[in-house]
Amino acid sequence: MRKKIVAGNWKMNLTKTQAIALAQAIDATEFSTENTEVFLFAPYVYLDVLEGENFRKIALGAQNFFPHESGAFTGEIGIAHLKDLKINAVLVGHSERRILLSESNTFLQEKVSSAIANNLQVFFCCGEPEHVRDNGQHFDFIAEQLKDSLFHLNQAEMKAVVIAYEPIWAIGSGKTASVHQANEMHQHIRKLIAERYDKATAENTRILYGGSCNAQNASDLFAMPDIDGGLIGGASLMADDFLSIINAAQ
Length: 250
Fold this sequence. Notes:
This protein is of the alpha/beta class. It has eleven helices and eight strands. Strand 2 (36-42), helix 2 (44-51) and strand 3 (58-62) form a beta-alpha-beta unit. The protein is globular, with a radius of gyration of 17 Å. The relative contact order is 0.15.
């Protein structure tokens, strides 16, 4: 059985005091880590202080990085910075960076390769805009994202990848893909992995749902056979809501 993951993406939110208090509240709550991993993708400026908290149940991740060890890249976060902070997980391909910062599939492939080469766990985000789904092209759209940015990895390297399906039309909109729509796309992604690699790789790859997953719908989503947890946005900023989602994964 695949171990579930509940990952909070805090985006550009919280003060340092709020970030510490929220993470402490989550870590102090009793929940089992035997079948559920919990990640917090915090703003980079808080990763150092949060790493120093030595949490028992929480792993920390970076929301972004530049695909080089170090160098003349003003304002960017390098691989060496993450290693120094003992950060072992990174988000790649979030729709906000694709749209607002024009991160192309080619650039995302470079980021994936750099992360894997440096032993970082990749949370690779993919998802379609509303007009693509309305036109019935959502399966092909996701296949292209995976082919162009992820499927250059070999079979062994794919073991370090978690995929997060986040329909763009459902992010921060209050809309949520139906349980059927979400699981159908997760099945499609697993089928694509099996075709590129093999059935075992597909069965072992964890695929998260990331479109307005919240305390009210998490149980129904996580009960589906191909949904292995969630990449949580707004609901990860409130301890009670995030803990409810963790409990749903239990």
